[in-house]
Amino acid sequence: MKKLLASYGRDDEFRAVAEQIITEEEKKNNLALAKTLRKTLEGGPSRPSAPKALAPLLPFPEAASDFIERIEPQHTKGDIVLSATNVRVLLGLVKEFRRGEDLRRHGLQTRSKVLFCGPPGCGKTLCAEIFAAELGLPFFVVKLDRLISSYLGETASNIRKIFEFARKQPCVLFFDEFDALARARDESGEHNELRRVVNSLLLFIDQIRPKGFLIAATNLDQSLDPAVWRRFDEVVWFERPDRRMIDRFLRMKFKNVATAFDPTAFASSLEGYSYAEIERVCIQAIKSMIVERRKQVQERDFNRALKDETRRRSNSARLKAGS
Ligand SMILES: Nc1ncnc2c1ncn2[C@@H]1O[C@H](COP(=O)(O)OP(=O)(O)O)[C@@H](O)[C@H]1O
Ligand SMILES: [Mg+2]
């Protein structure tokens, strides 16, 4: 039992010790107990591809649980299409992280604060998740809107707790919708407390040297305030896919699906769409096949799905223009 507790956070070791306990119970002829233990173990979360955790997880500050969430990555690098440039930048960050000790011995810091920019639906959130999974680091998502709006009085101390945590615990701390911060600062006007909170958050970002990574994602691009992005060690751009990337994405989405046509023939009609939009077209086409009980996706399924997406796009453009 002591061994079991000592292996907390190290999945493989935990499993090995648990197996050992079960075998011992079987030997003692406690078959019913052994059976339920085995069932519980098998039924538990299995993370076959998760690399070993780098350190046991520190307890997370309780006050933070309202605006921060630990997410178990569900995707791997095979699920994302990235430009060659972004692959190079991201791999560079991984390498630096892994050689962090060597760099620090030479008096150099690793790049650890990264800004993801680009239009919605182009993989910022997905990439942050996969990045954490690849590094074997726990992935924490900070809900900025909640952090900013709730408990104004306590926010500053909550922020301090998050950063205290990220300074000690190797993890990927992800600020999604980082624009909320810039917006809050612009809108704060006379609201001094809000302004103070935003400023203290920016100040903390300036000062922190995370043990893992701090990644912030924003949809704003040109209009991004230089005061915000100079705080980051690296900026990664997520663009809408060009034809070649659309091609790759379509191949990926139809890898395990029987089609009566070549989906990549649609690549040029999908130019200008985000990955999320193209994905929706693929899923709708595949759903038509299932709903209509066919064995293959037909060209007309795809065409219809594409038409629906186009309609949806023009509607949302109209809504935006009206707002
Ligand atoms: N580069 C990409 N490669 C593969 N799938 C993608 C990519 N970008 C977006 N997607 C799909 O669209 C969904 C939404 O993307 P997301 O990462 O949330 O976009 P963003 O954070 O940039 O708004 C993802 O869950 C994924 O299914
Ligand atoms: Mg996102």
UniProtKB/TrEMBL annotation:
Residues 110-242 form the AAA+ ATPase domain. One of its GO terms (molecular function) is ATP binding. SUPFAM superfamilies: P-loop containing nucleoside triphosphate hydrolases. Keywords: ATP-binding, Nucleotide-binding. It comes from the Bacteria. The keyword Calcium does not apply. PANTHER family: AAA-FAMILY ATPASE, ATP-DEPENDENT ZINC METALLOPROTEASE FTSH. This is ATP-binding protein.
